[in-house]
Amino acid sequence: MREISVLIGGKAGDGINQAGILLARLFSNMGYFVYMYFDYPSLIRGGHNFALIRASEKKISAHRLRIDYIIAINQDTVDFHKSKLRDQNNIIYDSDAINSSGQGLPLSKIIKEEGAKPIMRNSILMGAFARAIGIDYELLEGVIKKNISKELNLNLKLSARGYKSAKELLGLTALKKKSLPVLTGNEVFGLGLISAGLEAYVAYPMTPSSNILHFLASAADNFNLKVVHPESEIGVILMALGFSYKGRRVAVGTSGGGFCLMTEALSMAGMAELPLVIIVAQRAGPSTGIPTYTAQCDLHFVLSAGHGEFPRFVVAPGDSEEAYYWSNAALNISWKYQIPSIILSDKVLSEGAFSFDRESSGNSSREEAVLWKNEGAYKRYLNTDSGISPLAFAPNRGAFIKVNSYEHDEYGITTEDPKEIMPMYEKRLRKEKYLAQELIKYDAVKVYGNKKAEIALLCWGSNKGACIEVAESLGLKVIQPVVFSPFPRESFSDALKGVKKIIDVENNATAQLAGLIAKFGIFPDEKILKYDGRPFTIEELEEKVKAVIS
């Protein structure tokens, strides 16, 4: 199989993320599937940043431990990562600042001669790397023109100098495949919400969900979106509930710490039956934790967040195609059932960059909510067989639209009458039964690998990519629940048929998925847990799986 893994590194402020995206799009233009992982500390300046870009002829969403090339802007990049190289000479670096083997270029000298900014060193290195792996300069030039708008001519000149200064070490053959767009998971979440009719997005920036806000703000004019950045996460969700009351399809984005502040208003959404989508992009905790690194430690939290009992839809996509499909589904489900929907992501999915194939992400569209027909007296909480009441939105001269966080009767009038309380309670909970039935038509549990294997890797979220590749290598089955509330118990049981050994793979310390399925009498035989803020590499996971199946 043809593939290549490249690491580019420097310090915060060196433009490592953008350089990584540029490399990923270069490989994509050659017909390769790509995946990029971005690693950075929580520092505005300084610290070690690096991007791992992997290109393969097959669909991928995980990175390898071993790398083929290093592109280094500082000495730390060489010192920290040289041991991972397959060939110690495959380093392209700034010879004015770094002592290393490989191909050195005097970046500071070139920058001074061209009157360029230090951040433009990346353009020189991109040119040198393209030459080193045998890519025609015209291809790199096209990618730069498409992705760099500021001082384009100077960046092209610098990349050409880098290209002429390097020597070819490896010939990477272009594939005869269509080029797919390279998007971050956060961008795809935004597109999925837009496809379902998103009208408003409200967020306070919090890593790793922040880029959804930035992306949707940049796209707002094209899609008639209202994008708002309030003063706090409490302000975010309360403003979102106001949008929902007015009939605007709305979503918010945050991480675990911000979601903590939203939980009281989440309960209000449950009682008032206000549709709302919340994207919770997980990072390592508790508290501030390690804010720019990954984890899968909020599953139990989002399943039980808020006081009182009310239905919610919880889904955890595993790659960019699922991010698109399920963000669309979450917004539609939220409005159909008038419940909060929660999308669980993490740093790897949200900030990672993927080849995004819209055609393979599944059918998605906008579903309309059940609306009041302006007949008779309006009952906001009409007690129906399904629990779903027809919606009306202010201003409406024919209706008093009372939305209440207190317990209420069908009109929305506050009540403490036990004869009124139980029917309303049962009405709200009844929606979950109908939603669970509807989920049968969705792919709520995915199965990959050797479907007849007796050993299965159980995973969720972004661990999907590494688990699939390890399973393919070892002849195992992969079971990936995507929906967690209502939990698709029947589909999950079907996926387990023929399995004699379950190996649970999670990025947390307490095996939260294992704890969830234990409620249904299902107990994994082995657990492979990682909770240092970093995702599994394919080699690392394969070694651990071999150890428990031998």
Report a brief summary of the structure:
With 550 residues, this protein is α/β, with parallel strands linked by helices. It has helices spanning 16-29, 75-81, 107-114, 121-132, 137-147, 152-165, 185-195, 210-223, 233-245, 256-272, 299-304, 320-337, 347-351, 418-438, 464-474, 489-495, 512-518, 538-549, and strands at 3-12, 33-39, 46-56, 69-72, 91-94, 103-105, 182-184, 200-203, 226-228, 250-254, 276-282, 313-315, 340-346, 353-355, 445-449, 455-458, 477-481, 483-485, 501-506, 526-529. It has four domains: 3-165, 3-Layer(aba) Sandwich (Pyruvate-ferredoxin Oxidoreductase, domain 3), CATH 3.40.920.10; 184-361, 3-Layer(aba) Sandwich (Rossmann fold); 370-442, no CATH class; 445-549, Rossmann fold, CATH 3.40.50.
Q: Which keywords apply here?
A:
seven-stranded mixed sheet, globular, 4 domains, alpha/beta, Pyruvate-ferredoxin Oxidoreductase, domain 3, 18% strand, single chain, 550 residues, Rossmann fold, 18 helices, eight-stranded mixed sheet
Description:
This protein has four domains: 163 residues, Pyruvate-ferredoxin Oxidoreductase, domain 3 (3-Layer(aba) Sandwich), CATH 3.40.920.10; 178 residues, Thiamin diphosphate (ThDP)-binding fold, Pyr/PP domains (Rossmann fold, 3-Layer(aba) Sandwich); 73 residues, no CATH class; 105 residues, Rossmann fold (3-Layer(aba) Sandwich), CATH 3.40.50.920. The longest helix is centred in the C-terminal third of the chain and has 21 residues. The mean pLDDT is 95. The chain has an eight-stranded mixed β-sheet with strand order 6-5-4-1-3-2-14-7, with helices on both faces. Strands 9-8-10-11-13-12-18 form a seven-stranded mixed β-sheet, sandwiched between helices. It contains 18 helices and 20 strands. α15 crosses α18. By secondary structure, it is an alpha/beta fold. This is Pyruvate ferredoxin oxidoreductase. Keywords: Oxidoreductase, Pyruvate. GO terms for molecular function: oxidoreductase activity, acting on the aldehyde or oxo group of donors.
